[in-house]
Every structure is written in structure tokens, then in C-alpha cells.
Amino acid sequence: MKFETNLSTKDKKTIALVLGAGVVFIFGWFAIRPIVTSLTVIDADIEHAEMLQMQYKSKILNLSSAEALFNRAVNDLNESTEEYYPIMRSSDIDRMMTSYILDFGLYPEDLYITMPDGAVEEEPYVYSSIAGTTVYFTEEITTDTSIGATNSSSTSSSSTDTADEPVENLMIPYNRARSQASSTATSGIQCANLTYVVVGSREECQALIDDLSNKPSMRVTGYEWSEVEDVPVEQEDGTIEYEDSGLVRLRIEFNLYMADVTDYQALVSEAVDSVTDTEE
User: What's the pTM value of the predicted model, to 2 decimals?
Assistant: First the structure.
């Protein structure tokens, strides 16, 4: 059976051309398009991986300087607490302060000790320049760019295309935490409140006040003078007369600060040794 149509040769060529284009489109859609799409995804993954690589390189640079920052923080902690007394019991404080008072030639009458129940929450001196402000520790802290310096271009590109925060100089968060500290509650420093009543000459009592005022581990919170009763003196004729003893009584109140700072260097060394032993 012969199939005949009324299509001209030109129409047949047009139909053949359309069918050929359709075949090419279908082939491209189902065969080439997935490959192109896959290449696009791979290129995006490569670009993202390169950004992450740059960021991780910056983090590795920071890790290499983390030890220097750790040593800096430990040294700052030790220097800021080296003047304080170690944590003591009330009996130890009594014994230490009694010996201290006797060195001034004074006679201790009474001693009242209120032991701490946690870290001290200290406030600035009422007449100091920072009294009444929110931030107590406002000394200017300079940024040490030699610790944790990173490549700025790599961090900026990472920050715009990744969810991670940019890697910054390790000293920045450390100094920020120091400058924004507004309480001593987390310092670990404990404060014992002492009230001493002593008797001696006015010069000896004044020397005690001056010495306590100059000790960074103590803080005078108040004092009060009072006269000592006249002392009986036997006269040559056997009578008793009361005369001025030349002594005064001083009631002085002060804080004694104590700190028990952890040896972080030793803890880190022990942790490293423990990990090394485990791996072996």
C-alpha cells in the first residue's frame, strides 16, 4: 500500500527540520542539561570550598597564636591577683592580724571577723571618678596586633558568603570582655570584713591606718577614735590619783581580700599529657 500526501517538498523539508530540532532539543534537555547543571553546582561548591579553605587557614593562623593569648590571659590574671592573700580560715586571719597589730606596738582589745560566703561584689570608692558608672574597669586597653592577626581579605569574603562569623584578632574579644566588665562577682576574689579595736599612742594608731590604707589587699572602710580611761597612779603619800594614760582607742573597720587562683598552666599541661597518653 502506498502512502500519499498532499505535502509539497518544501513542507516535508520544514517538517523534517522541525522534527530534527525537536530531537536535538530533547537530547540536549535530557542528556546535556543535567551535565551543565552539574557543572554549575560543582563550580559553586568549589567556590564555596575555596572560601571555607581561606577561612580555615585564617583560623589555623589564630590557633597558632592561641597559646600566646592563653599565656597573656594567665599572666594578666596572676598579676591582678598576686597582691591578695590566699584563702584563709577565720582562725588563720585572727593569728595573722594579731601578729600584724602587735608589730605596731598596739594592744588588741577586740577583733570581729565576718567570713565571706562567695566572691565579693565590690563597688568603686564613692568619691572616685568612676563611681556611679555602669562600667567600673575603664582603663584604656590597646589591641596587640601581634597576636592573632589575620588576612582581612579572606575574612571579609568568608563573612559575606558563609554563615560563620569572620575570624578576628584574638585580642579583640579578650580586650572587649575586660573593658566591658561591670561586676566583680565572677572574679573569684573573697572578702573578709574585719573590725579591730586596739589601744596605743595616737602616733602608733595613725601608723596602722596609713599602712592599711596603702595595702592593695586591704581596704579601710571606716575608723573611730575614742579616749582611754584615766589610769590610777599611786602617789608618794599613798593616795590614788587618776592621770591621763596618753593612749587612745582606735576602732577600725577594713576588708581583707583573698584569692585562690587556679594554676591554669598546670591544668593545660596535665590535659595535654593525658591526651598524649591516651593516643599512645
Answer: 0.57
